[in-house]
Model the fold of this input.
Amino acid sequence: MVEQFVGTWTLTASENFDEYMKAIGVGFATRQMGNMAKPNLVISVDDAGVISMKSETTFKTTEIKFKMNEEFDETTADGRQAKTTFALENGKLVQKQTWEGKTTTLEREVQDGKLTAKCVMADIVAVRTYEKA
Done:
């Protein structure tokens, strides 16, 4: 059920995100902005089952629209051109990005009214915590 993810979420905590950005190949200047940004994550679903995920910061707003289990082309906030799929696995919203022979996984989960995003690249794991705005 994606319904539990719907809403506006504000970043409240971020662990190891700089290391994660390094691991996926984000340059220094972009990482500095990424570390300072406190994004709002806005998730909605339309009647056709298209999910919109918008990340809003003072620097830039990015939005992706997708259907579950359907691969699409994503230009990430840091400019990577990825092939991306979303799936629901055990109540988690799992996003898989593949680019230039690399793969990263972002697992989003709602527990106790908080949304956690676990960003995994090889052995590097970052955890970002959001609360409902």
